[in-house]
Amino acid sequence: MDYKGGQHPCESEDALIAAIDGDRNAAMALVWSPASPNMVLPEELRGAAAAVLHSRRELAALDHADARDKIRWFSLLAGGLVVYLFYRAWSMAPVDAMSARIEFSIRALVTSVSMGLALLLWLVFGFIPWYQARKRVKELDRWTAGDVEAAVPVLRFETWLEMQKAPATRFLLVLIALVGVTQLMPGNSIPAAGLLKDPAHRDWWRLLTSPLMHGNLIHFMMNAAALVYLGRRIEVIAGWPHVLMVFLFSAWIGGECSLRFVGLPSVGASGGLMGWLGFLMIFESLHGRLVPVKARRRLLAGIILTGLIGLVGFRFIDNAAHLGGLVAGLLYALIVFPKSASAARPLPTWSDWIAGSLAAVVLIFATMIAMWKILGAFG
Question: Do 102 and 93 touch, CB atoms closer than 8 A?
Fold first, then answer.
């Protein structure tokens, strides 16, 4: 069975193991043989450990080669930009002395927004994928059949999570996409509905519309990927109402922090997404039997990575909104959910349903305002 529920029969168990061995894209979610009463992970199929290791190593090697090519291209582009910006600063230097011109050019290079953005793109799309792929290759090279068996709990959780439906997450993604499509119209949408810091334009509704907007397509794609993963995780293990409530609450608090500590206009769903990260960190710690420990560590890695990206791109990344949203999500989970020793998921209460429905109405209202303001500004 693939991740979309499609079933692919094999004529024998040997043919099934051969299919596992050839699964270079990791498209195979679950397998079944007469020896098992239920479908299981490929890693759990008796006699398939060698085939699983071979296919996973082949996939990791392909990913590593692809990531290595990407980091080379990004490094070349970043290096070319460094040379261009340095030459331009050199030619525009208001002094003639060699040492003064060098100092002026280096300072212009370090403070350049274009250089900061290029470094951020190199980090996100070049270095991090290469580092993760390289780490995966080395890890799999050391694996044995026993390591495959030990990895089953985390793989089972991640596979189960990937196969669950998440309508509330999709609903939020559609709203953000609608606003994003509206932003593609000619003109500058940020003054129309973004979070402006000028006291004359501190409209309360901007705290609702700005989290649905993005600065560019790359900004949107990065947040959309995080939204799908984190939103599904919350929706499946904590319930759909908390997807919307945590996002709305965290985005609001993140916006309030941005108003107080950042002078430039800001847009983006990052405050709400950081709230989701903070919520999951606390929620999964309070429900320790619900999520494997190794799966929880990925959330901490996400927070550290976001902090690193914020440090590199501090000139154009709203770190105040990130931190405010993260703290809001942490507090939400601490206040709303008690500690539990059960492995069962908590069921939404009537108050959760009502609050979640109200949050959905507010988000629809914010989407309509954002689109109306943007279209009005361009019209």
Answer: no
Domains of the chain plus CATH, in order, are: 13-156 (no CATH), 164-378 (1.20.1540.10)
- Show the tokens assigned to 348: 């939404």
pLDDT average per 10 residues of sequence, the chain (379 residues): 92 94 91 90 91 93 95 93 90 85 87 83 90 93 86 89 94 98 90 91 93 93 94 96 98 96 94 96 91 80 86 86 97 94 90 97 98 86
Cα–Cα distance for residue pair 94/91, rounded to 1 Å:
9
- Considering only CA atoms, which of 173, 183, 321 is closest in space to residue 250? 321
Dihedral of CA 172/244/326/228: which sign?
A: negative
Give the residue carrying structure tokens 């230097």.
93
CA distances from 134 to 54, 59, 65, 119, 138 (A): 17, 12, 9, 20, 6
Contact partners, residue 93, CB within 8 Å, separation at least 6: 100, 101, 104, 105
| Count of C-beta atoms within a 10 Å radius of residue 344 | 9
CA distances from 233 to 122, 164, 275 (A): 28, 9, 13
DSSP one-letter code for 349? P
State the virtual CA torsion across 246, 173, 214, 210 in degrees, nearest 10: -40
* Rounded Cα gap, residues 76 and 175, in angstroms: 37
